[in-house]
Design brief:
By secondary structure, this protein is mainly alpha-helical. Among the domains are: 151 residues, no CATH class; 50 residues, Roll (SH3 type barrels); 143 residues, no CATH class. Helix content is 54%, strand content 5%. It is built from 21 helices and 7 strands. Strands 6-5-4-3-7 form a 5-stranded antiparallel β-sheet, with no helix packed on it. Strands 1-2 form a two-stranded parallel ribbon. Helix 2 packs across helix 5 and helix 10 packs across helix 12. The longest helix is centred in the middle third of the chain and has 27 residues.
Length: 559
């Protein structure tokens, strides 16, 4: 058998670690090959995009051939970056600096020639769907031609022509100053998108709008470009985590679709599902250990899709990153204390609609809305509790900024159904429904139909996980009771408990130890939310033609 330890490490580490390792190995090779000591030190001590671009230019001019494994590492870096770019695009977001990194890496890849053909990027997880680039043979001296941020990141054809003149400000964070016509922009932070040669001005993106500004009106803001390029920022970590979760959910769905078609057995589908859940638990735990702020699906999604809003709040209110992230998360998804057990929705979108309705009523265009107006006051009060230095006017500006960002960013966002499931379960926790049961053989009843039309495989089959929210509400108390009294309860007669130590039930059925742990803290962990969501996905993919009923009968017979 071949050595699988490396692939296994990639699978456990997740996409972000795959990118970090590949990028560092490629840059390390550049540093060993460039002949100029100053450039070598620039690659070793403080990595920058311009240093990578210059090193690739130098090696291209010297006709240095890159080994196949080096090009494979570079292909991996480009593919992961492109997958992250697609994630932003799916939510209506763009990241100009991210696109610039992809363009520079792509131009570097085009200029370097392999000694021998290689198989291209061997990625698991989310990047497996990325197309391996088809790199055309081009003369090295032309590979960096016309490279600008505005060029699209094509998946097969890098953009080439005359020698790269690394832009002095393009891709840089800049501080705006000296404006007369728009003094409100002075002191704001923006991003230099591109240089317009005809005017000599930069297109600068600030707070979602683009402005044409002279270089004299811009000052480069000190930032750690090395962290950005090497994938060590919280935003990149969060984005890769969402891609990892997407991949696991797709794998779980696929195996139950195969089961529904009769292509695999029940035990195979269940084992694969539990493997996906266990892997998700390891990824979530690893991410939280590295970045304590990313401890929930909502925090991860906020860091990914609302990164600009978080940076804006951090800057305007002079907050630390974690405080700003928490404030934006509460506005986007609602503070846990506000949640009732309802069908999930992105709270920030609902809050934005309420604000728009109140403003329309104030102008006389619509009657004053009778419901949900208290959401605005709750949001203002919560923000000012978290940030005591914020004035009421600042709180209102922040709320408007975040709700507008939610409206754009969560349009078609990845894992939207998982976010809905998370909102549902957070509502259960807020209603004190997740705790160690006190009475054996009894659990609090749930009103059937309170969360939607009850699921019935024959008369009302589920087409999405949202159709199963009422079913989840009815079954969750039973799962909690079973986990405590049948699987892991330590008091009472031993004969009353399931005892199969040789089977390692914690590994075979990870849902039970997850429930047991979360009951103690009365909070749904990321791993448990994923486990319940995956269980709902399995029902969606199987229900119909009495398949779920047959599974139930088979399980009864087996027990």
């Amino acid at each position: 058998m071949g050595d699988t330890s490396h692939a296994g490490a990639d699978a456990v580490a997740g996409l972000c670690e795959v990118y970090k390792r590949a990028t560092r190995q490629f840059i390390g090779w550049l540093a060993t090959e460039v002949p100029h000591e100053k450039l070598k030190q620039a690659l070793v001590k403080q990595v920058s995009v311009s240093a990578v671009a210059e090193a690739a230019q130098v090696l291209a001019a010297r006709a240095v051939q890159a080994p196949g494994h080096v090009l494979a590492d570079l292909d991996t870096s480009i593919c992961v970056r492109r997958e992250v770019g697609r994630l932003y695009a799916g939510g209506g977001e763009t990241d100009v600096k991210h696109d610039y990194f992809v363009a520079v890496l792509t131009a570097a890849r085009t200029s370097l020639r392999s000694v021998a053909p290689h198989a291209g990027p061997a990625l698991g997880g989310a990047a497996a769907s990325a197309l391996a680039p088809s790199w055309p043979e081009k003369s090295p001296e032309k590979s960096f031609a016309g490279l600008t941020v505005e060029e699209p990141c094509d998946t097969t054809e890098p953009a080439p022509s005359a020698a790269l003149a690394t832009p002095s400000l393009v891709g840089e964070s800049v501080r705006i100053h000296g404006l007369v016509n728009k003094p409100e922009l002075n002191g704001r932070l923006g991003l230099a998108v591109r240089l317009v040669p005809e005017t000599g001005r930069y297109q600068v993106r600030c707070d979602g709008s683009d402005y044409s500004l002279r270089p004299s009106q811009l000052t480069v803001e000190k930032s750690d470009e090395q962290e950005d390029l090497l994938g060590e920022t919280l935003v990149f970590e969060a984005s890769c985590s969402l891609l990892d979760l997407q991949s696991l959910l797709r794998d779980a769905e696929a195996v139950w679709e195969e089961f529904a078609r009769g292509e695999c057995g029940l035990l195979v589908a269940a084992a694969m599902t539990n493997a996906c859940v266990g892997h998700a638990e390891r990824l979530a735990s690893s991410l939280e250990l590295r970045c304590s702020a990313l401890n929930s699906i909502e925090h991860i999604s906020t860091a990914t899709y609302l990164g600009d809003a978080v940076a804006w709040v951090q800057r305007e209110l002079c907050l630390g990153y974690e405080t700003a992230l928490g404030a934006v998360r509460d506005l986007a998804f609602g503070h846990p204390s506000w949640h009732k057990i309802t069908r999930g929705r992105v709270f920030g979108i609902q809050l934005g609609r309420t604000i728009a309705s109140v403003e329309a009523a104030a102008s006389g265009r619509l009657p004053l809305p009778t419901g949900n107006v208290s959401l605005i006051k709750d949001a203002e009060a919560n923000l000012r509790d978290n940030v005591p230095t914020a004035s009421l006017e600042q709180a209102r500006v922040v709320i408007r900024k975040v709700t507008e960002a939610c409206k754009v960013s969560f349009r078609g966002a990845a894992l939207s159904s998982l976010l809905d499931t998370s909102a549902l379960l957070r509502g259960f926790a807020a209603a004190n429904q997740l705790h160690t049961p006190h009475t054996p053989h009894a659990w609090p009843p749930h009103n059937v139909g309170a969360l939607g039309q009850p699921w019935d495989e024959e008369t009302n089959p589920a087409s999405c996980t949202g159709d199963l929210f009422d079913y989840i509400g009815c079954s969750l108390p039973a799962l909690i009771w079973f986990s405590h009294y049948e699987m892991w309860h330590t008091s009472g007669a031993q004969s009353d408990r399931i005892r199969c130590p040789d089977l390692e039930l914690g590994r075979l059925m990870p849902l039970w130890p997850m429930l047991q742990r979360d009951m103690k803290v009365e909070r749904f962990s990321t791993a448990l939310i994923i486990a319940i969501h995956v269980a709902a996905l399995s029902v969606v993919r199987v229900n119909g033609q009495k398949r779920c009923k047959r599974i139930q009968v088979n399980i009864y017979i087996y027990i």
